[in-house]
Amino acid sequence: MTMPHPHLEVRRAVRAELADVPPDGAVLVACSGGADSLSLAAALAWVAERAGLRAGGVCVDHGLQTRSAERARTTAATLAALGLDPVETVHVDASNGPRGPEGNARTARYGALDAAAERHQAAAVLLGHTRDDQAETVLLGLARGSGGRSLAGMPRRSGRYRRPLLDLGRETVRAALPAGLTAWDDPHNADPAYARARVRHRVLPVLEAELGPGVADALARTAELVRADADALDAQAAEALAAVIDTELPPLEGYQLPVDHLAKLPRAVRWRVLRRAAVAAGSPATDLTAAHVLAVDALVTEWRGQVGIDLPGGLRAVRHDGALHFSTRR
């Protein structure tokens, strides 16, 4: 059977992802200048012209590499030549922050993309993550032991963000790069100092060699299945939390959870309730780990008079008068 040309596969994926955007709606693509995002940008330009959409691009310079500002400007010029308009180059400082180079860069990047989407009233912002990126994300989540939601990988949609290439392999996406376009190969992608680079160049090749081809596909399928399960459990947790909180009170006063109610919930639901309550009370979701949640759960299921659990964000979870209380740490 003849396989579709990579150009057609990428364009079809983009067209399907934007089918709900009305004519004259605005769409932005985040483009680093790498082969994946550049291929996505070219496909968006092609689809937008035929669908009557306003398509632009955003190039974020994190300032972490030599000549990064120049590369961002070159990439922006390439997007403009493809017909995207407007095209913005945004410079951010990702050199400082509490989450290390990768985490700081991600936070700064999404902040810049959010601001650009607001300025242009974009209905969607497209990201160039592929099926291979998804497989790497699943393995990283597995290594962290951070639960089903982490193993669910990246969602196809999250708010305004959309990932139309998640079902396509990296080779297919890069083969769709139009002739004449030169992609930038980020040296961080091969730097063993970064966990994702080690997974990409060391771990996945070993798995493919030892277990046979198709490991990346299987991991991506697993992510989709786990995400469906996690979504269902999250919905149950939201209902369980809503049944016991007082929505009229501020979070630090209202998120006092009856222990008897919590103890009756299935563990998978209870853990999610505790995490939701902690985040709602002010603990940063990015810093709240599975270990934190399990420690809070012990206040429910293994109560021995513990004085409380310290949580990120300056919070403390304590058990008092038959309820869990989330309060500011003093």
From TrEMBL:
Binding-site list for ATP: S32, G33, G34, A35, D36, S37
Any GO molecular function: tRNA(Ile)-lysidine synthase activity
Subcellular location: Cytoplasm
Protein EC: 6.3.4.19
CDD domains reported in the protein's UniProt record: TilS_N (cd01992)
Main location: cytoplasm
tRNA processing in keyword set: yes
Domain tRNA(Ile)-lysidine/2-thiocytidine synthase N-terminal intervals: 27-202
Xref: Gene3D superfamilies: 1.20.59.20, HUPs
Keyword terms: ATP-binding, Cytoplasm, Ligase, Nucleotide-binding, tRNA processing
Single GO BP term: tRNA modification
Domain tRNA(Ile)-lysidine synthase substrate-binding: 257-325
Pfam families cross-referenced by the UniProt entry: ATP_bind_3, TilS
Catalysed transformations (reactions): cytidine(34) in tRNA(Ile2) + L-lysine + ATP = lysidine(34) in tRNA(Ile2) + AMP + diphosphate + H(+)
Gene Ontology CC terms: cytoplasm
Written domain comment of the UniProt record: The N-terminal region contains the highly conserved SGGXDS motif, predicted to be a P-loop motif involved in ATP binding.
Function (record text): Ligates lysine onto the cytidine present at position 34 of the AUA codon-specific tRNA(Ile) that contains the anticodon CAU, in an ATP-dependent manner. Cytidine is converted to lysidine, thus changing the amino acid specificity of the tRNA from methionine to isoleucine.
Family the UniProt entry places it in: Belongs to the tRNA(Ile)-lysidine synthase family.
PANTHER family, per the entry: TRNA(ILE)-LYSIDINE SYNTHASE-RELATED
The protein's name in its UniProt record: tRNA(Ile)-lysidine synthase
Source organism of this protein record: Jiangella asiatica
